[in-house]
Batch of 2 targets.
Target 1
Amino acid sequence: MKLPVYFTLALLMLCSIPVRARTDSAGGKSSAEKYRLTSGSALYKGTLVSSDSDGITLALFNPSEERTFSHQDISKMERFAGRRSHWKTGALIGAGAGIVFTTVMFIADEANNDPVDDFIDSAMGWDSPGFKIFMGAIMGTAGALVGSLVGLAIQTDRWEETPLIGNPDRNVDLGFIPARDGGYLTLSLSF
């Protein structure tokens, strides 16, 4: 078995991972101001300008304009709750890929009937079950590292549903805002 070739390929794959910098998709605006709401079948994203008994006014991101939505037209309103990376999922997928790669590598080596290669494998201990498990762990760990880096680069927005601000049909709204230290209960009264 030619292990240095496999390690060289793994190193080349590791070095070819694209890494991107974090950017704020709000166009420089504070992420706490971003809202999205559903009106009819359309989804609108923007910053909250005002909210009163007539409706909710958003400064939309695309197209760049202010628009007022009546409370009756809004079916759902959500507040931006930050960005989320997927490093755990990437690590899990990468570890699985590393273990599968190692398994395929050893199956292909067993299918090779070269007596010189078999002699070298036997003399070096590369055909022992312990070595195969060790290599599976090493490649699984390397795959988990690569996968977590890829998952870290992939980020998505998190949104949490909020009660409709200033809705004249609601007098009391109770909500929950998740946070790293547990969360906060919110109580909204309108008169």
Target 2
Amino acid sequence: MDVGGRRFRRRILGVVVCADKRAYISPDTFQSRVARQKQRQTEKMKDKHPSDTIFLYDIAGAIIATFCLAPFVSVAWNAVVLTAFLILSRSIRSIGLGRLLLGLAVISIGGAIIDWLAYIAPTSGYISSISQEYWNIFRATHPVGTFVPRMSYPPFVGLYFMPLAILCLGLFNFFLGMAFFKFSRRKSAILGVAMGLLTAPWLVYLYSYADY
């Protein structure tokens, strides 16, 4: 019984010792495992966080710039130019506040439509046609998988349709000065030139097309 009990005790102790050896982790091994886990978590955060936040920031920035900032800046600048013209031409007293605000609204809405029709749409369409033509030629002359270099556009391609926008804005404000503000032909012509040159979509060019 003593021999059998000793053997049984040795087996139990051997199992416990083996279990202790397997469960034992040295401090260096433990620290390395913790460091690897932190590194994996950091890499996961880098993979998820920047792309998501940058995408959301881009969308929010585009929405704010398009629907809030751009109309506010446009209306404010139109108000500055129109008020300065009325003060310099000594016509500010003959026009009431209601007519001034209504005229500013008509100028801003009409100017936005003209900017789109006479500048933004044709400029975007022209640049898209150049890009498509470049891509078709490159695809026809190079094998599939070839690196596509950044194409070079004609110089100042974003300004090609700016004279058309200036002319349309000038004519619009000229007829508005005669029909709405009841200015003389000379004063309406000066208003048309001033509004055409100063309220043309220069910011749109600098923001969207200056890099082409």
